Amino acid sequence: MIDARDVHKRFGSLEVLKGITLQVERGQVACLLGPSGSGKSTFLRCINHLEKIDAGLIRVAGRTVGYAERGGKLYELKEKDVARQRRGVGMVFQRFNLFPHMTALENIVEAPTQVRGQSRAQARERAHELLDRVGLADKAGAYPSALSGGQQQRIAIARALAMDPEVMLFDEPTSALDPELVGDVLDVMRDLAASGMTMIVVTHEIGFAREVGDVAVFMDGGVAVEQGDPAQVLIDPQEARTRSFLAKVL
Ligand code: ADP
Ligand code: MG
């Protein structure tokens, strides 16, 4: 479902991704961890077309994303293909980025009606289903400012799901939350994984990564230092850099 090969990305003279390769099968969950600045967010942004890669190849559901090398040439997608493909990828950020002037329901209804041309009635019905799915059926009319961080993040997940993505990307979705609110968000993500969603999750929640992850990737300095079975990578890492990082977050 996600096929990234030897992905390179630089910002000016700074090479942020130095050849990342990762395959995620349909229905699998890959957990990415690593120190701040290691390129985790940039990698997710490349998958979602928010950044263009300089070399390598990324495919999502068999479709080429962004730049790709073709016989040494860089291949650029048309804007409309980018827009179409981005719709297949849902993204949830550390900061929930809900529209503050809209209720929870309106936040969820916005993209399907504006971008996909769904009728309001249809989008509202689906939004209610999604609110129920994230455990917030009673918050349809609430504004973000009246919701806790954990509730806002669950609305943000529902909003992403409203576009029926094939893949969900989570960038440290619980890092900005008070500790007591983390569990509810992880529960929603766990249910989503169990329902068969393909996911890449940047997280330092080692318990979640071990339990839900099919693959764990430890990144450092733009390199995937170690990747494989979470039980191996997170419990018995082979690389010294992975061991010292885990010792800090555990
Ligand atoms: P992580 O998510 O692992 O903390 P990031 O992908 O955010 O790492 O950042 C990796 C590196 O790329 C950092 O050194 C960061 O400063 C740099 N960086 C990220 N985005 C940009 C940008 N738009 N312009 C310049 N440098 C950037
Ligand atoms: Mg980041």
From TrEMBL:
Membrane topology, from the record: Peripheral membrane protein
Subcellular location(s) per record: Cell membrane
One Pfam family matching this protein: ABC_tran
MF terms in GO: ATP binding
Domain ABC transporter: 2-246
PROSITE patterns given in the database record: ABC_TRANSPORTER_1, ABC_TRANSPORTER_2
Keyword terms of this UniProt record: ATP-binding, Cell membrane, Membrane, Nucleotide-binding, Transport
Main subcellular location: membrane
Record-linked SUPFAM superfamilies: P-loop containing nucleoside triphosphate hydrolases (SSF52540)
InterPro entries: AAA+_ATPase (IPR003593), ABC_ATPase_HisP-typ (IPR030679), ABC_transporter-like_ATP-bd (IPR003439), ABC_transporter-like_CS (IPR017871), MetN_ABC_transporter-like (IPR050086), P-loop_NTPase (IPR027417)
Name recorded for this polypeptide: Amino acid ABC transporter ATP-binding protein
Source organism: Microbacterium invictum
